[in-house]
Amino acid sequence: MRKIVTKFGGSSLADAGQFAKVKRILSMDEARRYVVPSAPGKRFKEDDKVTDLLYRCHAQQAAGEDYQETFDRIAARYMDIAEELGLKTDLASALDEINEQIAAGASRDYCASRGEYLNGMLLADYLGWQFLDAAKGICFDDHGAFLPEETNQRLGQLLIGGVPTVVPGFYGALPDGSVHTFSRGGSDITGAIVSRAVNADVYENWTDVSGFLMADPRVVEQPREISSITYKELRELSYMGASVLHEDAMFPVHKAGIPTNIRNTNDPTHPGTVIALDMPPETDTPTITGIAGRKGFSVISVEKAMMNSEVGFGRKVLQVLEDEGISFEHTPTGIDTMCVVVEGSALKAKREKVVSRIIELTGSDVVTIHDDMSIIATVGRGMVHNCGTAARLFSAMSAAGVNVRMIDQGSSELSILVGVNDRDFETTIRAIYKEFVL
Q1: CA–CA gap between residue 270 and residue 207 (Å, rounded)
Q2: What is the pTM of this model?
């Protein structure tokens, strides 16, 4: 029998009306037997997410302030859902226990996790499904590092038999049983973990958008939707900030070869975006899959005569960055020049020290830093099958009056990265989109 794991985001479970939509979606396919809920999100623009309120409770209690008004707002959200849906869960007792734990100084992770925990209880009651506390199956080590294999084995045993089950997202447990959370948006990760544990046929991630778009709608007006994308392409685009899916959620399902389907709770008949290991280029779609980028990079330019013949030169440059705790993004090089692209914000407080240390270690002739650079990625599995893709891209940028500061293309031809001035960021994305899509 087919098995589908469904994850519903905070906007999908923000109130009783959204709960009803989720129940209808689950009833549309009997293969949907596992559901991972987030905590209630915003019901309207000025509303608060329950997770934010729980973090506030913890902060207020830790500062010796009265947090009860904040907690009462949280309790009211859940009580309203339970009353409107006519649920029988002993919600009052669960809320009292959480309140007592917060008052006693419960950890920040415990406080934050209760949003998903309570929503899971309510959803299981509403559906008539089994409830499984994620702390019983999702494992972290003593240092808070996720344990994928131990988790996969334990969850697989707990979920054996195919009984319809609700597993709250976002958290698990340390070896001593105390609650530990993933980073924000971690319910995406839980959904992927459950999918791997039950060897699901599909992991459906339900949110408030109908999949991915080819470009940021704040930059390109009404960008085209992406119907299918590979995990490698998604990784490239996610790195540049274009994602409705938590980046770490790709790895469990990617490893297991399970496709992910991004769907819209408010438009359940829309097919969304399918993410899979391999997909052939679609003949009726553009050569590229998507365009994404980020601003605020800095380029460290290191010049030294005969640099190319000096063994270990690059290692010394990167050693300085490692010693200063700065990650590098790209390293375009020439015969006598090596450039290292880093986040401008990470370099800001250490500029002078980095320059002096590079000169000290390498004996470079000149070390300069150029700021305010954007990196834009043009990604597509179809690019390798089409001659002249790079030529079209650079011609479009030239026609738009954009100067290229950096070029980086991988051997797989899955993506082309270009560096431009921050002021040309939007212009570049629009030019590339117009060339390949419009």
Answers
A1: 12
A2: 0.86
